[in-house]
Amino acid sequence: MKKICLFAVIGLTFSLAACGQAEVKDTKDTGQSEVQTGEQENGGEETSISSNSFFEVFDGKIDHIHGVGYAGNQGKVYFAAHDGLKVYDNGKWFKTKKENNDYMGFNATQDGFYSSGHPGNDSKLPNPLGIQYSPDNGQTLEKKALEGETDFHLMGAGYENSVIFLMNPQENSIMDTGKFYLSEDKAKTWKEVAANGLEDTLLSLSVHPNNADYLAASGQQGIYLSKNKGESFERISKSVQGTSVFFTNEGLIYGTYDGTAKLTKLSLTDETEEEIALPKMKEDAVMYFAQNPKNEQELTFVSFNGDIYHTADGGNNWDRIVEAGSIR
Predict the structure, then answer these.
(1) What angle do CA 9, 262, 324 make, to 5 degrees?
(2) Torsions phi, psi of 71, nearest 5?
């Protein structure tokens, strides 16, 4: 499925078809994925991905990305693509050998990652994935909720607390269409939240790493922040288009576009703001953003035009490591 990004003269117009439903695959096997043998990276150890037998060197195209994050607190950045996970580790690229699923709603956590989406050709999982969790880089996927029922695109998960906040796109066995839900027990139970003030066409959701009171959303009319577990949201940006949201323990980092892409960090303690320098981009903006929890100076983002940028010094110098889906 081709990603559609339309740039107007003033502001960005983002088609939700850009993150739309993938082509439905015919699958009759509804079993869980089998455990793959090979070394695993647990406990946030700083070991190279190259030593993990589940990965292999990758030099192809990276496109249709639907999430980025430092999964498993390993210091390596993961990209959720339509054909499986890609990992950037110390200047080299790797891909998973199996379970190359079309990941949507991808969220890295300190122990692994949560995701939705559709199964890859080599997967035994049902379509759609519902909500799945992996503690081992995607080798195994544990069903958490609504497997075979719903593909969640708008979903956030707290890095440390694994609190999940989502918008349900279609009616399923436990949720109503178009409503917002919160789970504080790793998808075992769900509570509908009012989300007052969140009347917008949304692009992304985010959950604070360890405080479930704080939730955020980006939409065509701006950036929204909740301090009461999603019962109400306040638009915190001015007359700009919101493009991305990402929580650190201390603040909210959010992307906007008003003819120029911007990345801003809002302090959650005193509500002061500071701008994070971005590389020069033409008719482009930050779509997915992540900060290395082991090193706050290491930042990575994916742009709407399919570029990937990485910095090791807090944004003073950016390296474009992928250009329009091609590795540089």
Answers:
(1) 70
(2) -65, 135
What residues in the chain have per-residue pLDDT under 70?
A: 1-46
Q: How far is CA 230 from CA 193, 210, 224, 279, in A?
A: 6, 15, 10, 33
174-180: Cβ within 8 A, 24+ apart: 174/145, 174/146, 175/146, 175/150, 180/230
Tokens at residue 36, please?
């793959």
Which two structure tokens, joined as six digits, stand for 323? 């250009």
pTM of the full structure: 0.88
> Nearest-CA neighbor of 289 among 266, 263, 321, 260?
263
If we measure between CA atoms, which residue out of 275, 317, 302 comes closest to residue 88? 302
Q: d(Cα 54, Cα 98) in Å, to the nearest integer?
A: 7
| φ and ψ of 219, to 5 deg | -150, 175
257 burial (CB, 10 Å; 0-12 / 13-18 / 19+) is buried
User: β-strand 102-108 against 273-275: which pairing, if any?
Assistant: unpaired
Q: How far is CA 136 from CA 36, 116, 173, 180, 205, in A?
A: 10, 16, 29, 29, 24
Q: What is the DSSP string of 206-242?
A: EE-SS-TT-EEEEETTEEEEESSTTSB-EE-S-SSEE
Percent of the chain with pLDDT over 90: 84
